Amino acid sequence: MFLSRLSMAPRDPILGLNERYSQDPRPGKVNLAVGVYYDESGRIPLLDCVREAEAAQVALRLPRGYQPIDGATAFQEALLPVVFGLQPGTPRASRITTVQTVGGTSALRLAADFLHRVSGVESALISNPTWENHRGVLASAGMDVGTYRYLPKGALQPDLDGLLADLEHTPAGTVVVLHACCHNPTGYDLPAGAWALLIEVMRRNGLIALLDIAYQGFGDGLDEDAAPVRQFMDSGMPCLVAISFSKNFSLYGERVGALSVVAPDAATSERVRSQLKVLIRTNYSNPPSHGAHLVSRVLSTAVLREQWRGELDGVRVRIRRMRHRLVAALYEAGMDRDLSFITRQKGMFSYSGLTVEEMRRLRETSGVYGVNSGRICIAALNDGNVDRVARAIALACHPHRK
Ligand code: LMR
């Protein structure tokens, strides 16, 4: 029987750790593996702006019909100011086609299907290192996936020269996946001035940008974090933008994302939309409605939008405080290497520099889960667990020290 010939597939390198964490019976376990923000009490917050939007939404007692294939127009328009800094209905906004997707991951997959199956793009470049799922998503769409240099082993800042040189030697028509902000897993973003150089090389070489923006608001602020997206748009080059609202709305399970394609003009945009709709219809048919209603209500209601900005500011401040707390606690626990890089990294993660073996020891000896690449989620630390985590890291790094 065909099923009996199946071999066991490996666990997912990030979500597979979640599964192992849930099965771990130890009371003191800490999950620093997945990119999820937990508040000071260790819970995934329900943002106040979302709570209010949800109360208003539920009070409408709307029937649960199908959404349009590309999601609601209100949702598509509501994200334009926050991601692109544009008002809907303006000539510049008419170049942008947005469709709702099932979280940021399906935005990437839809982008890959669109590029490969509709536009004939054969190959993609992802950063080395990158989010564990990038390669799988692009490869499952049928693309050849290579890498560009980003962070050499042990380096404490991106290798911009290496990155530019790699793009210089990449054949025209290749799609290049770029992290708009809060580079996952490293936390090291390109310096602001680097984006103009990147755009210049990509334009000269006929490369296609696919910007992944999953952590907007977690780096320097909503507008600051979207600056690379807006720079690409302003350059006049066509590009694709995969957007996730999982993290910045704390709506992980609602799967709210979007794919925007910036085209040269409105007529091209219409054709892009028609093609995206075919890809969506033959995959998941149309996106879920509830989370998208909440996001569009918050973004299109001035009071709620301001509340959201304020709540995100609070999230960012707390993560920064935890970066400093962790460094102090690691020194206290006896670590003697320079750890100041942890406070310079941006977003939820720290690329700790720990080896696979140290990450394994951390998990097995102390029940502290991080990704094998050495990535740990700072956003899951709080005053109640940070000292324990620091002692566990010191023990994993120096198992024989008394
Ligand atoms: C992560 O990097 O941990 C998150 O983006 C969650 C995921 O889907 O991997």
Concise structural overview:
The protein is of the alpha/beta class and 402 residues long. It has 14 helices and eleven strands. Helices cover 44% and strands 13% of the residues.
Number of helices: 14
Q: What is the overall pLDDT average?
A: 96
Approximately what portion of the residues adopt beta-strand conformation? 5-15%
Strand order of the largest sheet: 2-8-7-6-5-3-4
How far do the termini sit from each other?
Answer: 56 Å
Query: Which ligands appear in the coordinates?
Result: (2S)-2-hydroxybutanedioic acid
Low-confidence stretches: none
Summarize the main sheet. 7 strands, mixed
Label the structural class.
alpha/beta
Helix/strand order: HEHHEHEHEHEHEHEEHHHHEHEEH
Tally the beta strands.
11
Q: What would the principal axes of the Cα set say about the shape?
A: globular
Helix content percent band: 40-55%
Radius of gyration over all CA atoms, rounded? 21 Å
SSE diagram, text form:
Blueprint: H1 15-23, E1 30-31, H2 48-59, H3 73-84, E2 96-102, H4 103-118, E3 123-128, H5 132-140, E4 144-149, H6 160-168, E5 175-179, H7 194-205, E6 208-213, H8 222-235, E7 239-244, E8 256-262, H9 266-281, H10 290-300, H11 302-332, H12 341-344, E9 349-351, H13 356-366, E10 368-369, E11 375-377, H14 386-397
Parallel strand pairs: 1-10, 3-4, 3-5, 5-6, 6-7
Antiparallel strand pairs: 2-8, 7-8, 9-11
Helix pairs in contact: 2-10, 2-11, 3-10, 4-5, 4-9, 6-7, 10-11, 11-14, 13-14
The structure holds (2S)-2-hydroxybutanedioic acid.
(2S)-2-hydroxybutanedioic acid (LMR) binds near residues 14, 34, 35 and 131.
